[in-house]
Amino acid sequence: MKQVLTPNQADIPTEVNHNYRKILGAAGLLLLVLLAGWLVWTQGPGLLARSRPGMSAEAFAEATGIQIKLIGVTGGGGFVDFRYKVLDADKAANLLQDPANAPVLLVEDGRGAVLRTDPAAFKIDFADDTSYFVFYVNSQNAIKHGTQVTAVIGDYRLKHLTAQ
Fold first, then answer.
1. Which terminus of the chain has a lower count of CB atoms within 10 Å, N or C?
2. Where are the domains of the chain?
3. Is 73 left (phi over 0), alpha (psi -120 to 50) or beta?
4. Phi and psi at residue 151, in whole multiples of 5°?
5. Distance between CA atoms of residues 102 and 120, nearest Å
6. Alpha-carbon distance values, 61 to 3, 27, 42, 74, 84 (Å)
């Protein structure tokens, strides 16, 4: 009959147990650092964008060349009507030529709902003192009459717009 020896916990030197604990602790810490790095790498730009302060309506218009006229719920709640007036066609065109700068609507209710539209809707020849509009699909009725919304265009944000 063959006898198999299994080590008893008491038979293992405490130095070995202590080394395993150090290795497991270091591996756990490394895992946390890697996870934090991954979150910053993948979510960092979004987290940074959400942390940027808003601007006054005047400062927003001066910086972007765009004055937001209306955030309106329409189509039985299925669409959001975004109306804006171009005050400075050159500023607006320079900003909106980059698809990443297409206006985004953030719902301020804490749920983090974001409405986006096709950036091609802003690939037009702008003219000074001209009004334009674009429709956003109002997914899951994220925006209702009275909802507070932040409009983001590139690095600029105009907060506390009330949906009509």
1. N
2. 11-51, 57-162
3. beta
4. -95, 130
5. 9
6. 85, 51, 31, 25, 10
39-70 pLDDT, tens digit each:
544 544 444 344 467 899 999 999 999 999 99
Q: What is the CA radius of gyration of the chain?
A: 27
Query: What one-character DSSP code corresponds to residue 84?
Result: E
Alpha-carbon span 8 to 41, nearest angstrom: 45
pLDDT digits over 144-159, tens only? Answer: 999 999 999 999 999 9
Phi and psi torsions of 114, nearest 5°: -130, 130
Would strands 79-86 and 104-107 be described as parallel, antiparallel, or unpaired?
unpaired
Helix (H, G, I), strand (E, B) or coil at 107: strand
CA separation, residue 148 to residues 41, 48, 75, 90, 140 (Å): 30, 21, 19, 29, 16
The C-alpha angle 113, 118, 92, rounded to 5 degrees, equals: 100
Q: Which of 76, 148, 81, 58 is nearest to 108 (CA)?
A: 148
CB under 8 Å to 141, separation ≥6 — which residues? 77, 78
